[in-house]
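User: Design a sequence. Structure:
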């Protein structure tokens, strides 16, 4: 039976122990070679798969090599270069505006603080956390994407629903040295096993501590729906 441990801290520790064994070398799946490329890729990844983003940025990064290239780009042309990405028109506007802000306010560099990053168009805490962690080697929070949101709720680690509230709720119970990898472990697990619609509970390394296990639970705590 999927029974969580007595405290959230103990549940998190067990989850980290098992997933770190399962995924010993977790890495970000977006392709980039510098901070600007990382920022652009993460903005594009909102509600879009990393695989699709990587296909698009393979040619995008050859066309736009500097922050000035994005800042001076024709927005319609930039959008056309992104047309396989979800919400590409909006994202083209975000990227151009963010680039203009970086040129005007940050000497053409990608900022290295949460407040400065989230002041850029199209950049929320999730995007800022990714850029800080993987671009500046600064871990200030926990990246809460759809996998982290879904699996943290399924495992009974949080009952919060909004990403910002989930991050705030996780930070006291996830050891700070694991904040960065916690995200990657859950993303890997979410892609391989704990998928959104049909998780493979029978082959899950966390099944016995998961209160949402569909082997003996009627409810998916990720969204409160019935299996």
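Assistant: Done.
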């Amino acid at each position: 039976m999927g029974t969580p441990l007595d405290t959230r801290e103990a549940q998190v520790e067990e989850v980290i122990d098992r997933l770190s064994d399962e995924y010993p070398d977790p890495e970000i799946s977006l392709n980039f070679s510098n901070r600007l490329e990382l920022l652009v890729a993460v903005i594009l990844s909102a509600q879009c798969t990393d695989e699709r983003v990587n296909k698009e940025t393979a040619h995008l990064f050859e066309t736009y090599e500097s922050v000035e290239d994005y800042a001076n780009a024709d927005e319609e042309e930039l959008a056309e270069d992104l047309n396989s990405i979800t919400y590409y028109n909006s994202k083209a506007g975000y990227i151009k505006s963010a680039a203009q802000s970086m040129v005007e306010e940050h000497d053409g560099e990608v900022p290295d603080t949460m407040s400065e990053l989230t002041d850029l168009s199209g950049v929320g805490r999730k995007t800022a956390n990714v850029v800080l962690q993987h671009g500046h080697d600064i871990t200030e929070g926990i990246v809460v994407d759809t996998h982290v949101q879904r699996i943290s709720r399924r495992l009974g680690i949080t009952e919060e629903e909004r990403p910002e509230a989930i991050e705030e709720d996780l930070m006291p119970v996830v050891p700070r040295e694991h904040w960065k990898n916690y995200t990657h472990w859950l993303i890997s697990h979410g892609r391989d096993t704990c998928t959104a619609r049909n998780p493979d509970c029978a082959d899950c390394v966390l099944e016995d501590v998961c209160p949402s296990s569909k082997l003996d639970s009627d409810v998916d705590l990720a969204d409160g729906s019935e299996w």
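DSSP finds eleven helices and two strands in the chain. The radius of gyration is 19 Å.
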